[in-house]
Amino acid sequence: MTPLERALRERIRTEGPLTGEAFMEACNSYYYATRDPLGAAGDFTTAPEISQMFGELVGAALADVWARAGRPANARYVELGPGRGTLASDALRVMRSAGLVPPVHFVETSETLRAAQKAAIPDATWHEHIEHLPGDGPLLVVANEFLDALPIRQHVGGIERRIVITAGQLAFDRDGEIVETSPARDGAVRAISERLVALGGMALVIDYGHERTAPGDTLQAVRRHGFTPVLVNPGEQDLTSHVDFQRVGEIAREAGAVFSGPAEQGPWLERLGIMARARMLANAAPERAAEIEGARARLCRPDQMGSLFKVLAISAPEWPTPAGL
Ligand code: SAH
């Protein structure tokens, strides 16, 4: 039994059944605090860890919008849940070549990942919450696979599904058609949207999920690059759920921001020029041509990350609309 499972069982015994939200919150805080889960040796691999092309095209999209917004000198780069800082390094390199060298602000709760981020971007500033970001100057925000890690609630027939101990095991107390909501995710989208409306700027959000609100159980656990049962090994596997992009759009609009997308990741990367970028990299390093093409295919193909992953932008009303969406 994992140390966290022991603590959760004790909590259920003393406080009663746990909501999915409390369970996911506890598991993911522990999980991210105690490891770097990314890459081949970890549990899952994200787009920026597959290829530098991903972060470069994100950087190009942000630099383009910034240039068309009149090149505001006080713009900041903000990333939510920046992992190892790989996306930021690749994006900032491209932004620099476009004349954009913004101060960097990271929102990250894991000390382990903060250390990795510090090695990649030594002069970044770290924050615990979106609310602590600076309140002056436009923001260029990136969130890749951030919203999916925030806790969700699940309801069956209007009743919240909870976790109990049955026959000595953690188990859900009811099954049936599941409706998911995520106050934490809604809160993050609202906080970013309100800031963008007040300060100017744009957020690019990339994640997996569905374009329309629909019932369904999307809570999933991943360990060593494979799916595992969600209630097993609490704190030792990555718990995520699909993002409801319709809901994200509704919240952004309620806050007065402009919502663009969602677009599928593959076509979006193609519209931003991933083919040309892959050819350039392969010409510069012919011995890596097959690897570069493999990475491009993994990011873009509909049977890999190209279709399930979606890209959307939330913009301040007076800001130009982003390319590719
Ligand atoms: N964006 C990175 C990492 C994705 S993993 C990439 O694409 O590689 C999720 C990231 O979000 C991790 O950095 C994790 O520590 C962070 N995270 C998870 N929950 C968080 C929370 N509530 N607040 C801030 N960061 C969080």
TrEMBL record:
Gene Ontology terms for molecular function: methyltransferase activity
Transferase in keyword set: yes
SUPFAM superfamilies given in the database record: S-adenosyl-L-methionine-dependent methyltransferases (SSF53335)
A biological process from GO: methylation
Keywords, comma-separated and alphabetical: Methyltransferase, Transferase
InterPro entries xrefs: NDUFAF7, NDUFAF7_sf, SAM-dependent_MTases_sf
Source domain of life: Bacteria
The keyword Cell membrane is assigned to this record: no
Major enzyme class: transferase
EC number: 2.1.1.-
Full protein name: SAM-dependent methyltransferase
Organism, scientific name: Sphingomonas arvum
